Every structure is written in structure tokens, then in C-alpha cells.
Amino acid sequence: MLRTLCRTGGAILLQAQRPAPRLLVTPVQQRWASSLPMNTVILFVPQQEAWVVERMGRFHRILEPGLNFLIPLLDRIRYVQSLKEIVIDVPEQSAVSLDNVTLQIDGVLYLRILDPFKASYGVEDPEYAVTQLAQTTMRSELGKLTLDKVFRERESLNSNMVHSINQASDEWGIRCLRYEIKDIHVPPRVKESMQMQVEAERKKRATVLESEGSREAAINVAEGRKRAQILASEGEKAEQINKAAGEAQAVIAKAEAKAKAIRMLSEALTEQNGNAAASLSVAEQYVSAFSNLAKQSNTILLPSNMGDISGMVSQAMTIYSTLSKTSQKLPPKELQEKMEEPLNHLESSEEQRTP
């Protein structure tokens, strides 16, 4: 009986020391995967690891980080799960886009084990299962997009991948954090056509920008000419207005000066010896009119007694005396016109005799 018990205990101990078979996809995963420890009664579990313990072949409990005690021969550490974030390289695969273009695409998958129990008993190899799920999901998502959208909507494609993987991996106790596309390879002919398309698009943009520049330049030139004509017309208008205002002010000033002169003349005639002063002024104008006859025309009209200056003055004074008799009956303005009539009559008679 004792011998049978010892043999059974030895077999259980050897089975506990034997590592459990695991399917490791890539050598990268071997860095975080740990070997199954032996049951030494007193165990120290590292941080960010979960040890799944079976008692007599049935799940018993999950050891927490730190000090733990197990019963020898009955308890066995069946699985060791890492709770750290795991990085899995998704192998390159071929996929067909919506416009029937074959693409070669690979990516990187970031995941974490949230439930060690489901990760141990829900699937045989959780990492391998998630990798295969990522490949199939990527083919399905690429089949919904055209080639141009695959390059433009990589962020939305990654988010759709994460959502689809999480829907299936919840039963495995694994949470996909993110998925990143590493590289996308297209056939050489498709790449050449894409380059030609890019060149054509750039030429189109250059042509459009050049035409827009020409249009803006023409608009600016037309606007400049329009503004120049408007400013020129406004300047001419302002010049005419100023000229008319100046002429109006000159006429007003001339009329005011003439009115003032007439007013002063009428005041002077009413003073003492005003008649004598008026006689002197008329005589001076009479003599000046005869002196200008030879300067304005070739025909000269001379009086019979040209050498008799006193007679000429007497004649002028006679004209003034005739005007002075009516000065009391006429206003100053009409009086001035009467005084200028002999001189004007003399000048008009000279013009009529000019051949």
C-alpha cells in the first residue's frame, strides 16, 4: 500500500514538473511566456502574473502576486498568464479591395489578458486565436473599401479592426487595445498607375492655380484702371467746382469793389470842392483818351485845335458841367454811366472809322 502511494505521488510530481504544451506563434512571444513552476508548498508569484491552480484536475483558484501556499500532490499550477500588454506581429497576408485590387498587408496587434480563467479554459491558445481573428477581420474590412480609401482611412480601418476583434475575444478574456497597419504593398502596375494619377492631379492643381492667378491679376488690373478713372473724374469735377467757385467769388468781389467805388465817389461829390475834383478827373480822362488814339488804330482823329490844350479842358469841363446839373436828379450808379458815355462814344466812333 505504501509502495503504491509512493509511486502515485512520484507520477504526480513528474507530471507537475513537465511543462504544458503551448503553441507559440513567433519568437517574440517567448520573451513574456514563463514556464510552469513546481508546487513547493510555499510559492512567490511575481507582479503582473496570474497562476491558475487546479486541485485534483479541477480549477481551484488563481494565485495573486506575493506569498501563496499550496498543498503538495493535490494542487498543481496548470497555467501561467501574463497580465502585461502583449504585442503580436500579424504576418503579411493578401486581401482584395472593393475595386478588385490585390493588396499585401501586415500589422501589429496590442492586447491584454483581463480574465485569466477565460484565457486558460476558453481557448487553447489565445494569442494564436487572436492573430487568426485579426487576419480574417482585416480581409473582411479591406473588402469594404476601395484602394484610395484604404490609404486615406487607415485610422478608421484600425478602429473597426479593434471593435471587431473585441466582439469575438470577450469570451476568451482578452481585450484588444489597438491595431496598427505596418505596411501596405500594391502590385507594380497599380503603383505606376497611382503615380501617374498623382502626377496628373498635381498638373491639374498647377493649371488651376495658374488660371486663378491670371484671373486675379486681370481683375486687379481692371479694378486699378476703374479706380484710376474714378479718381481722375473726381479730380476733374473738383477742379471745375473750385474753378467755378473761384470765378463766382471773383465776380462777387469785383461787383462789391465797383459798388464800393461808386459809393465812395458819390460821397466824395457831396463834399466841399467835389465839383472841382470831378472836373479835374474828367479833364484827365479826356486827355488820356486822345493820347491813346494813335496806339490802337492806324486812323487818327484829331481836333481842329489840337494845340489848344486849354480849349480841350474847357470842352471837358463843359461836358462835366452838363453832367453835374443832372447829378442831383440821378443816382450815383447812373451818374457814373453818364460820365463814361462821352468816352465810350469817342472810342466807338474811332473803331467805326478804322479801315
UniProtKB/TrEMBL annotation:
<feature type="region of interest" description="Disordered">
    <location>
        <begin position="325"/>
        <end position="355"/>
    </location>
</feature>
<dbReference type="GO" id="GO:0005743">
    <property type="term" value="C:mitochondrial inner membrane"/>
</dbReference>
<dbReference type="InterPro" id="IPR001107">
    <property type="entry name" value="Band_7"/>
</dbReference>
<dbReference type="InterPro" id="IPR036013">
    <property type="entry name" value="Band_7/SPFH_dom_sf"/>
</dbReference>
<dbReference type="Pfam" id="PF16200">
    <property type="entry name" value="Band_7_C"/>
</dbReference>
<comment type="function">
    <text>Mitochondrial protein that probably regulates the biogenesis and the activity of mitochondria. Stimulates cardiolipin biosynthesis, binds cardiolipin-enriched membranes where it recruits and stabilizes some proteins including prohibitin and may therefore act in the organization of functional microdomains in mitochondrial membranes. Through regulation of the mitochondrial function may play a role into several biological processes including cell migration, cell proliferation, T-cell activation, calcium homeostasis and cellular response to stress.</text>
</comment>
<keyword id="KW-0175">Coiled coil</keyword>
<dbReference type="Pfam" id="PF01145">
    <property type="entry name" value="Band_7"/>
</dbReference>
<dbReference type="InterPro" id="IPR032435">
    <property type="entry name" value="STML2-like_C"/>
</dbReference>
<feature type="coiled-coil region">
    <location>
        <begin position="238"/>
        <end position="272"/>
    </location>
</feature>
<protein>
    <recommendedName>
        <fullName>Stomatin-like protein 2, mitochondrial</fullName>
    </recommendedName>
</protein>
<comment type="similarity">
    <text>Belongs to the band 7/mec-2 family.</text>
</comment>
<keyword id="KW-0496">Mitochondrion</keyword>
<feature type="compositionally biased region" description="Basic and acidic residues">
    <location>
        <begin position="331"/>
        <end position="355"/>
    </location>
</feature>
<dbReference type="InterPro" id="IPR050710">
    <property type="entry name" value="Band7/mec-2_domain"/>
</dbReference>
<dbReference type="GO" id="GO:0007005">
    <property type="term" value="P:mitochondrion organization"/>
</dbReference>
<feature type="domain" description="Band 7">
    <location>
        <begin position="40"/>
        <end position="198"/>
    </location>
</feature>
<dbReference type="InterPro" id="IPR001972">
    <property type="entry name" value="Stomatin_HflK_fam"/>
</dbReference>
